[in-house]
Design a protein that fits this description.
Blueprint lengths: L21 H11 L5 E2 L14 H9 L14 H13 L10 E4 L1 H13 L5 E6 L3 H9 L3 E6 L10 H6 L5 E7 L11 H14 L2 E5 L23 E7 L12 E7 L5 H13 L5 H4 L2 H6 L4 H5 L4 H15 L3 E2 L8 E6 L9 H12 L1 E2 L1 E2 L10 E5 L4 H22 L6
Parallel strand pairs: 1-11, 3-4, 3-5, 5-6, 6-7
Antiparallel strand pairs: 2-8, 7-8, 9-10, 10-13, 12-13
C-alpha cells in the first residue's frame, strides 16, 4: 500500500511566481525534446551572452583565499562600505556600514525584511503590476498584499491618491519599485515625494526596490527614494544581478536610512535572521567594491547604439508596425510591458496567448496575470536578446495574432 500523499504547507496556497511557473516547466520539457526556446520570461543577462565586467571576476579570484571561512552575517566590510560610498555620492548621508546588509541576492533580503516586520494579517502596499516576489514574500510572512494601481493611463506611474486610500490600521509598509519591473516606468521626484510624505504621516516603512537604478534610456532620471524620505525608515535594495550582469553571483544589499532610531529592534531582528543563515556568498561579495567603484559599463549598453538601447528600439518599432500591440516605451530596467489592443482583438487572454506562443512559436513570455493585475491583455518580455532576434520574435507574435484574428480565437476568452 503506497504511503499517503505529502501535502504541501497551507502557507503556499496563495503563493505564485509565474515567471518560473508552469510555462517555464513546459519550456524545459520542449527543450528536452530538441526545441530551441527563446526565453523572454526572465531577466537573466547571462543567458543572452552578457558578461559581468572582467574586473569583477578578477576581484573574486584575487580574494578567494579570504573566502573559505564564513563571513560576517551582515556581509564583509569592504562590500558594505562600498554601498555606503555609493549612497553618499547620491546624496544619502545618514547611512553607515552598520545599516547595510548583504544577502544572497535581493530576493533573500526581501523575504528577510518582510519576515522581520510582519505579524499575521499585517498589510503591505505593493504596486500593481508588481514584481511578484514582493507579493509572495508578504504572503509567506503571514501578511496581506494590498495592491495600489499603476495604471496605463498614468504611464504606469503610481496612483498616489489610490495608494493613500488603501492605508488602514494594519498597514505596515509601502513598496516602491523604481525603475519599475515589469513596466519600465521611472518615477519622477514629485511622485516619490508624495509617497514619502504619506509614509511619514502614517509611520510606515518604505521598501524601495532599486535593483535597476542605472539602467535608464533617453535621458530618464533615477532619483533614490532615500534622498526624499527622511521622517520614516527607508530600506533601499540594490545588487549585482542586473546593472552588473552577475545574476549567478547572488549578491544583493539593503541599506537603511531616514528615521532609524525607532527601528533599532527591527534592525536587530534582521541581524538575527542574517545570523541564522550564517552568511551570504562570500566570494561574490569581493566583487562589490570593484563593481560600484569602477567604470559603469552599463551606460555603454543603454546609450544609443548600445545593445539594450537598440533592442528596446526594436521593441518600440515592432509595436509601431503591429496591428495589435501598444506599449508605453520603457524608460528604465530591462523589460517591456506589452498590451494587446482590445479593439484589435477583443477578448484576448494573456494566459492562452502565452501558452500558444510557447507551443507553436517556441517563444516564452510571462503573461500579465502573473504580476498581480486585474486585466488580461498584457504580458512581459525582456530586452535582453539582440535586436535582430527581437525583430524575429515580433514576427512570430504577429503571425500568431493574425491567426487569432482570422477566427481561430484560441487566444481569447470564452
Amino acid at each position: 500500500m503506497p504511503p499517503p500523499p505529502i501535502v504541501p504547507s497551507q502557507s503556499l496556497t496563495n503563493v505564485r511566481y509565474e515567471i518560473r511557473g508552469p510555462l517555464a516547466r513546459r519550456a524545459a520539457e520542449l527543450e528536452k525534446s530538441g526545441y530551441d526556446i527563446v526565453k523572454l520570461n526572465i531577466g537573466n543577462p547571462g543567458n543572452f551572452g552578457f558578461r559581468a565586467p572582467e574586473s569583477m571576476r578578477r576581484a573574486i579570484i584575487e580574494n578567494l583565499d579570504q573566502a573559505d571561512a564564513y563571513g560576517p552575517q551582515k556581509g564583509i566590510f569592504p562590500a558594505r562600505e562600498a554601498v555606503v560610498m555609493q549612497l553618499q555620492s547620491r546624496g544619502v548621508m545618514d547611512v553607515t556600514a552598520d545599516e547595510v546588509f548583504i544577502g544572497n541576492g535581493v530576493s533573500e533580503l526581501i523575504s528577510s525584511c518582510l519576515r522581520a516586520l510582519l505579524n499575521d494579517g499585517d498589510e503591505v502596499l505593493i504596486p500593481s503590476p508588481d514584481y511578484p516576489l514582493w507579493t509572495a514574500a508578504t504572503t509567506l510572512a503571514g501578511g496581506l498584499a494590498r495592491h495600489y494601481p499603476c495604471p496605463r493611463e498614468l504611464g504606469y506611474q503610481p496612483d498616489v491618491a489610490a495608494l493613500a486610500a488603501l492605508i488602514g490600521p494594519k498597514t505596515r509598509a509601502i513598496v516602491v519599485i523604481n525603475p519599475n519591473n515589469p513596466t519600465g516606468a521611472v518615477y519622477p521626484r514629485a511622485t516619490l515625494e508624495a509617497i514619502a510624505r504619506i509614509a511619514e504621516e502614517h509611520g510606515l516603512v518604505v521598501f524601495s526596490d532599486e535593483i535597476y537604478d542605472q539602467i535608464l534610456y533617453d535621458g530618464a532620471t533615477y532619483i533614490p527614494m532615500a534622498t526624499v524620505c527622511h521622517g520614516t525608515l527607508v530600506g533601499t535594495f540594490g545588487g549585482l544581478s542586473k546593472v552588473y550582469r552577475a545574476c549567478g553571483y547572488r549578491v544583493g544589499w539593503v541599506s537603511f536610512s531616514g528615521e532609524t532610531e525607532h527601528a533599532r529592534d527591527y534592525l536587530l531582528a534582521l541581524d538575527l535572521l542574517a545570523g541564522l543563515r550564517l552568511c551570504s556568498n562570500v566570494p561574490g561579495q569581493w566583487a562589490v567594491q570593484t563593481a560600484l567603484g569602477g567604470h559603469q559599463s552599463i551606460w555603454d549598453l543603454t546609450k544609443p547604439g548600445g545593445r539594450l538601447y537598440e533592442t528596446r528600439k526594436a521593441v518600440v518599432d515592432g509595436v509601431a508596425a503591429s496591428r495589435y500591440f501598444d506599449v508605453v516605451a520603457p524608460q528604465g530596467a530591462i523589460y517591456a510591458w506589452l498590451r494587446v489592443k482590445p479593439e484589435a482583438l477583443p477578448g484576448f487572454d494573456d494566459k492562452r496567448f502565452a501558452l500558444d506562443l510557447l507551443e507553436r512559436k517556441h517563444v516564452l513570455v510571462t503573461p500579465g496575470h502573473g504580476f498581480n493585475v486585474p486585466y488580461a491583455d498584457h504580458f512581459r518580455i525582456t530586452l535582453l536578446p539582440e535586436a535582430g532576434q527581437m525583430r524575429q520574435v515580433f514576427g512570430k507574435m504577429e503571425e500568431l495574432l493574425d491567426e487569432y484574428a482570422r477566427g481561430t480565437r484560441r487566444g481569447t476568452r470564452g
